[in-house]
Amino acid sequence: MIRFACALALLSGPALAQDLNYSDAATQMCLEDAEDFSDRLTCAGASAGECMEETPGGDSTAGMVGCLDRELAFWDDQLNYFYGEAMTAAKQLDADRPSDMQNQLGSAAALREMQRAWIPFRDKSCAYEASLWGGGTGQGPAALSCLLDQTARQALTLSPPENG
Question: What distance lies between CA 92 and its chain's CA centroid?
Fold first, then answer.
């Protein structure tokens, strides 16, 4: 699914991709103002939406794909950062475990298994979302919007309580 979305983004028109009026600022500002997890979830898509409004042709399929793809990259970076932080904390928890618990599944292994299970869940969820468009031009933006939302949710789930 990710390959499909990326391929669609590449085919969406190089001229428009260069002319996108995109910035992560709207999403970052929203996250700073958010008070809790639910508020933070509403930030997903803020920068892409602003990009679509401010880019000439941003409401076209190519414009939507370009804007959504840019914000997806923001959330993917967030996810990778928070996963790394969570893995560091999980490894520390494992190191501090009593010796009689060493043969049980540790936090780091559980985190890794959870993330590995999440990836196919995300891809299948977004494939379903795209299928609802019946192969129409909305399929690409629907898939990317789903990927963005799912990635944002996972990033925020993995973020420390003060951030997510």
Answer: 26
**For the chain, how many structural domains are there in total?**
1
Q: Name residues whose C-beta falls within 8 Å of residue 148's C-beta, 6 or more positions apart in sequence.
A: 44, 45, 48, 68, 71, 72, 75
Is 90 exceeded by the pLDDT of residue 101? no
Helix, coil or strand: residue 108: helix
Least confident of 6-20, 33-47, 54-68: 6-20
Query: In the structure encoding, which two tokens stand for residue 18, read together?
Result: 């260069």
- Residue 163 within a domain: no
User: Does residue 164 lie within any of the structural domains?
Assistant: no
Residue recorded with tokens 């500002």? 29
Task: Give domain status of residue 39, yes or no.
Answer: yes
Measured at the CA of 88, the angle between CA 81 and CA 158, to 5 degrees, comes to: 50
The domain of 78 spans 2-158
